[in-house]
Structure formats: structure tokens, C-alpha cells
Amino acid sequence: MNIRGKLIIIGGAVDKGSFTETDLDKNVANNLNFFETGILKRILNESKHKQESRIEVITTASKIPREIGPEYVKALNYLGAKNVDVLHIERREQASDPTVLERLKAADVVMFTGGDQLRLTSILGGTEFHDIILYKYYNEEFIYAGTSAGAAAASNNMIYQGSSSEALLKGEVKITSGLGLIDGVIIDTHFVQRGRIGRLFQAVVGNPKVLGIGLGEDTGLLITNNTEMEAIGSGLVILVDGREIKDTNLTEVELGQPISISHLVNHVMSKYDTYNLETHKMYIRSSQYSEELKQPTD
């Protein structure tokens, strides 16, 4: 199936007071730290009408929606975007408001902010608003962009809880359904900065067909046709591939006990590198090898 929309998922650096971590500043306003303008500029460049595109910033996941929404508008206006507004959807009934739905139908880009992805899915999941997003993504030149919680919620399977320090203890990582724009992956954010590699390990060992995607801050993926992924931004994307796992004790240990995994494959992507979700091949843009020898990595 040819998917006309584009998916841009970003590792965060916005609204760092998101879910389940206990060592972050409790005043989430003190954690605001926008990712660099390079990613926002890429969103504009990929959009249907570029700087004229209609952009709706959706703050549903955030604990501070009235603060964070205008900051996005300011940042996008600075880059030349001329048609940006904020949709504050804080209750499920608002996701069926005719005015809200008309604004969504007119949008070329939706930008989901950070915060709590469980709040995002519990408010929007299964609503007419959700249905319109899915329709536009599959059938129109439309961009779903999400940072932090907005990125984590994009896939069918979504991590919503699990501390970094105890992530490889059985049962520590909690997974539920996301917004369902892309299947076959599971996404974690603030990945390098918060040491969340263990969360993806546990998510993948429980279902090795699913590719784990760990997004660093100021880093993201541009995904076209739910197949081709390009790394964007200044940091790293970690991919966790469980298809070649040879052994684990996952089903033999009790809840709360450490998990062992043998032969778990990882890839590290940086800016302009690509990975194909159908062939599971990665291309390193600035390979140290000559063009004649350059091959996709397995």
C-alpha cells in the first residue's frame, strides 16, 4: 500500500517532565528545552506548501499546554511559517468538536508536543479526531510530526511506563496501544540522555519481530511510506533488532527478576543515514569505505 503522508518522530528535549522517571525536575516548566531549529525547518521543507502550510500544534500530552503551545508557534514563525495555530484538546469530548475537526481536516501538518503519551492516547484514541489523522496520513500529502510523547504514541505498540534503572527486570516495562500510524516498530525517546536502552531491550525480547527505535534528543526520523527511515537532527538513533535472538530466560524467571538475552543486534544511525523497514538494510551516508565497496549493513 502506498502511504502518501510522512511521519517525523523526534526524541524530545521538549517538556521533559514526561512519564515515569523519578529523577527529573518536578516543575516541568523548568525542563523546557527546544530541539534545534534544523528539525523544525525540515518539517517545513517536507510539508505540502512549505512556509505556507497550515500547521496545528497539538498540546494534549503536555502538563503545561498553555505555555508550550505559543513557544512552538513562535519557533515556527521564526522559521518563516505563516499559518500556525495551537489546538488545546484536554478532554475526549473536545476531540469531536466540529470546529476542531474542521481545523484538523484543513491542516497540512500536525505537531504533537511532548508530555505523557498515555494521556495523549487515552484522550484521542478511538475518537473522530484520531480517525481523521489516520485517514489524512494514509491518503493525503500530510505530515504527522511528534516529539517525545508525540513520537512514542505514533506506532501501534507504545511504551508508557518503565524506569531506566530497572528496565531489564521482568515486567518493569509497560506497553499498550498507540495511535497506530506505523506497525512493526516500538519507539522510545530521550533515549541516550536518560539511558533507556534497557527499556527497548525488554520490549523487543517480548516480541522480536518488532524493531525497537531509540531516539536521542534533538534527533529524529523522517519515515516515508512506512518503509524508508532517514535520521535527522544532531544526535543518534539506536535500532534494536531482535529477529536473530538465539536465547533468553524471559519466560523462565519470575516478575522482577533480571532478563538475559543472547545475540540481540543493534544499529546506530546519525544524520542522513537510512534504514529500510522491509529489507532491514541500513546505509551509512558517510561510510569510511569507497563507493565501490559501500554496501548496506545487515
Quick tags:
9-stranded mixed β-sheet, 24% strand, 22% helix, alpha/beta, 7 helices
What does the radius of gyration come to? Answer: 19 Å
Low-confidence stretches: 14-25, 27-33
Q: Biggest β-sheet: count, sense, barrel? A: 9 strands, mixed
**What's the β-strand tally?**
17
**Tally the helices: what do you get?**
7
User: Portion of residues in helices?
Assistant: 10-25%
The residue-averaged pLDDT reads 87
Major beta sheet, strand line-up: 3-2-4-5-1-10-11-16-17
SS-derived structural category: alpha/beta
Q: What are the secondary-structure elements, in order, as H or E?
A: EHEHEHEHHEHEEEHEEEEEEEEE
Beta fraction of the residues? 15-25%
Q: Which outline best applies?
A: globular
Q: Distance between the terminal alpha carbons, to the nearest Å?
A: 25 Å
What does it look like?
With 298 residues, the protein is α/β, with parallel strands linked by helices. The chain has seven helices and 17 strands. The chain has helices at 37-46, 65-78, 98-106, 117-124, 128-139, 149-152, 197-206; strands at residues 6-10, 55-58, 84-87, 109-112, 143-147, 157-161, 174-177, 185-188, 211-215, 219-224, 228-233, 237-241, 247-248, 261-262, 265-269, 274-276, 281-283. It has a nine-stranded mixed β-sheet, sandwiched between helices. Strand 16 and strand 17 (281-283) form a beta hairpin. Helix 3 runs parallel beside helix 5. The protein is globular. The chain starts with 5 loop residues before the first strand and ends in a 15-residue tail after the last strand. The model is unreliable at 14-25 and 27-33 (pLDDT under 50).
